[in-house]
Amino acid sequence: MKIYITRHGETEWNRERIIQGSMDSPLTDEGVRGAERLSVRLKDTHFDFVITSPLYRAYRTAMIILKDRSIPIKKDDSLKEINCGIFEGFTFNEIWQKHPELKAKLHSDPLNFRYPGGESLNEFYDRVKNGFERIVEEYADKTILIVAHGGTIKGLTSYMIEKADPSSWFRNVVDNCSLTEIDYIDGRFSMINYNDTVHMNIDWLR
Known about the structure:
Layout: E1 2-7, H1 12-16, H2 29-41, E2 49-52, H3 56-66, E3 73-75, H4 92-98, H5 100-108, H6 121-138, E4 143-148, H7 150-162, E5 179-185, E6 188-196
Parallel strand pairs: 1-4, 2-3, 2-4
Antiparallel strand pairs: 1-5, 5-6
């Protein structure tokens, strides 16, 4: 099984450093260009299926990548970004001003802190892990492209490479429209590329 994973293109809230979580904001022009560059990079790569978060920023990125290719796209709720509850739509500074008591709680136990009205990181990790195990079982002999979110991809790679260590979420970086490539053979995951952004250089298109 071959697994390609990418994060959606840059959004307006990414640029403004506003917490999105389960909410959405449009792709910026740079976000669209990033998806187009990735489309060029992957134009000769065969995919049996594309599996995307149902959030529009991920789905639109998938559509740009595929362009005119006739490849089935499936939406999977397990790939959604972490639900940050009342934090969504605000910057962290705005949240700390409104709810200063939450900052200490988050920093003292970041894995178990549940965003009011949302999920904890451990709950989010379990959701992503369980969904991914189902995806691997369903598409075991296929080549798939997953289009998701920074937090989701951190959870996936933590599970695949570090096996149930959600704390590695804090160490990983996932750039918009980056490409991660994984082989799954005989029950073992092997990382070929992680957070590869070579295609984001405009020279790639020449």
